[in-house]
Write a structure and sequence with these properties.
By secondary structure, the chain is of the alpha/beta class. Strand 9 and strand 10 (217-224) form a beta hairpin. The strands form two sheets. Strands 5-4-6-7-3-8-9-10-11 form a nine-stranded mixed beta sheet, sandwiched between helices. A two-stranded antiparallel sheet has the order 1-2. The radius of gyration is 19 Å and the shape is globular. The longest helix is centred in the first third of the chain and has 19 residues, at 2-20. It starts with a helix and ends in a 29-residue tail after the last strand. The protein has seven helices and eleven strands.
Length: 261
Amino acid sequence: MNSARTSTLATLRGTIGRLEGEPDGLARVGLGHASVDAVLQGGLVRDALHEVFAEGGRHGAAATGFIAGLAHRLIGRRPLIWVQQDFAQRESGTLSMSGLNELGLDPRLLVTVRTKDAETALRAASDALACDALGAVVLDVWGEVRALDLVASRRLTLAARASHVACLVLRTAAMPSASTAETRWVVRSASSSPATEAWGAPILDAQLVRNRHGQLGRWIMEWKCDEGLFRESTAHSQFMAPASADRPVETPAFGTRRRAG
């Protein structure tokens, strides 16, 4: 009996190891931004977990737009499931189909799921990742979510790897913690060119704070809605975005945390 259990345990560990290990020929999707794609060694790994954080609610729209851009690059013509916690929807607002359409994301490919709490959202996202017909799954939660720990992130990673479906996690008003994320981003809104008189392309301050396969960096990125890709902003050509001049050095990168119910 002990021998059989040992053999079974070894088999399970081997399976998990192969799933968590480095796969041959990682499928990557370029973002279109030459400098970012170079740091990412060609682009985002498709079959993986990627995290995007927003400081409080004030940068939630920018982070949501960034997630939408990543999803646009990853899904191609396959469907996207966006799972949103009820509290996140109350704080950040309902997803606008017309707004996503203006960003270049086809609303006909989008299925939205609203859940009563973060734990239910996590379960719904995990279930959705089992469908290999999807292009990506977005998990949109607010605040510190105890259920979204290292173990949960590993499950999401394994599910993404098994189904070849990207998992994008949007964390608003939360602090980064240990996870199996392939990449982790902190996204803020950035100023457009003062010479712009009409509505222009979205400008984002995107900081790559975790990258399992290379360097980190920070860029001012412009989302080109018509082309469906990121580019270097013509208003901000620098590679590294400097810290805000009116932010004290001792001020933490993330604002006051708010715990969701």
